[in-house]
């Protein structure tokens, strides 16, 4: 292990799927990085200064600047685009233009629609309630799983077609985003994907990659201290 701090530091927590997405990119590329914990719900002023939307993650590249706003990038998609440019191998964005466009769309779909539905509708009602000493809102989580998730899971299943990957012939930002975000549900509940066979196979494959499984294990260790068991959504 090196004594010097890595150039890249990500402010946030592996409990965030967006932090895990950017972490997965670094791990796939074998780029050293560290995660520095920030309480995003009660952040210090220095964090507000570098995160105008008060969101995690924010990346700092210490080779650009070790403090202040200079050298920081907010938003996981911007962070991942930066990491790809700075450390191009292995490529995690398709080179072929149409596949590149598809990858960006699937990433956006995961970051917005899937993250909002699974995060606000399932993860938060269970985990945030538990954190506050309240009963998990299982009714809300179950209603989201049965009401809103089927259309999303069907889309993600069908978007794979016959392919192992969402865009191009190899792992890309699209596969990482979908899996990291779906795993937010798996942090608090059993997530049966039997009705979505292509998605289930993709999820099993991608979630087993060390780049995804490693950061997830850290998040899981944290969540299990508050919620020892997973809930059933059906
Ligand atoms: N589009 C942003 C979304 C980041 C985001 O929503 N992060 C959540 C944590 S998972 C957050 O910081 N939430 C703080 C809040 O809701 O106040 C990205 O991709 O980085």
What would a concise description of this structure say?
With 234 residues, this protein is α+β, with helices and mostly antiparallel strands.
Can you tag this structure with a few keywords?
Glutathione-S-Trfase_C-like, Glutathione S-transferase Yfyf (Class Pi), Chain A, domain 2, globular, Glutaredoxin, binds glutathione, 2 domains, alpha+beta, 234 residues, Glutathione_S-Trfase_N
Descriptive overview:
This protein is of the alpha+beta class and 234 residues long. It has 2 domains: 8-86, Glutaredoxin (3-Layer(aba) Sandwich); 97-226, Glutathione S-transferase Yfyf (Class Pi), Chain A, domain 2 (Up-down Bundle), CATH 1.20.1050. The chain has helices at residues 17-28, 45-50, 76-86, 97-131, 138-147, 149-160, 173-186, 197-207, 210-226; strands spanning 8-12, 33-37, 58-61, 72-74. It has a 4-stranded mixed beta sheet with strand order 2-1-3-4, with helices on one face. The N and C termini lie far apart (45 Å). It binds glutathione. Glutathione (GSH) binds next to α3.
Q: Specify the biggest β-sheet.
A: 4 strands, mixed
Summing up helix and strand content along with how strands pair, one would put the structural category as alpha+beta
CATH fold-level name of the largest domain: Glutathione S-transferase Yfyf (Class Pi), Chain A, domain 2
Radius of gyration: 18 Å
Shape: globular
Strand tally is 4
The CATH architecture category of the largest domain equals Up-down Bundle
Name of the top-level CATH class of the largest domain: Mainly Alpha
Task: Quote the beta fraction.
Answer: 5-15%
User: Which ranges are low-confidence, i.e. pLDDT below 50, for 5 or more consecutive residues?
Assistant: none
Bound molecules: glutathione
Mean of residue pLDDT values: 97
Strand order of the largest sheet: 2-1-3-4
Q: Number of domains in the coordinates? A: 2
SSE string: EHEHEEHHHHHHH
Q: Give helix % range.
A: 40-55%
């Amino acid at each position: 292990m090196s004594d010097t701090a890595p150039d890249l530091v990500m402010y946030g927590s592996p409990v965030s799927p967006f932090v895990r997405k950017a972490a997965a990119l670094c791990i796939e590329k074998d780029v050293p990085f560290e995660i520095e914990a920030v309480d995003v719900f009660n952040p210090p002023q220095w964090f507000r200064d570098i995160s105008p939307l008060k969101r995690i993650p924010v990346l700092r590249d210490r080779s650009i600047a070790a403090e202040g706003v200079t050298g920081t990038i907010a938003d996981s998609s911007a962070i991942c685009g930066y990491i790809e440019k700075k450390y191009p191998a292995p490529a995690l964005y398709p080179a072929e233009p149409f596949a590149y466009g598809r990858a960006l769309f699937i990433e956006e779909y995961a970051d917005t629609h899937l993250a909002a539905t699974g995060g606000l509708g399932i993860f938060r009602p269970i985990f945030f309630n538990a954190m506050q000493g309240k009963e998990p809102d299982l009714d809300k989580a179950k209603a989201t799983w049965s009401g809103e998730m089927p259309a999303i899971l069907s889309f993600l299943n069908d978007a794979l077609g016959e392919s192992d990957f969402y865009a191009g012939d190899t792992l890309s930002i699209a596969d990482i985003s979908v899996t990291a975000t779906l795993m937010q549900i798996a942090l608090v509940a059993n997530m049966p994907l039997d009705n979505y066979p292509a998605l289930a196979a993709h999820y099993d494959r991608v979630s087993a990659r060390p780049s995804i499984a490693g950061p997830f294990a850290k998040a899981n260790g944290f969540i299990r201290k508050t919620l020892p068991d997973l809930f059933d959504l059906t």
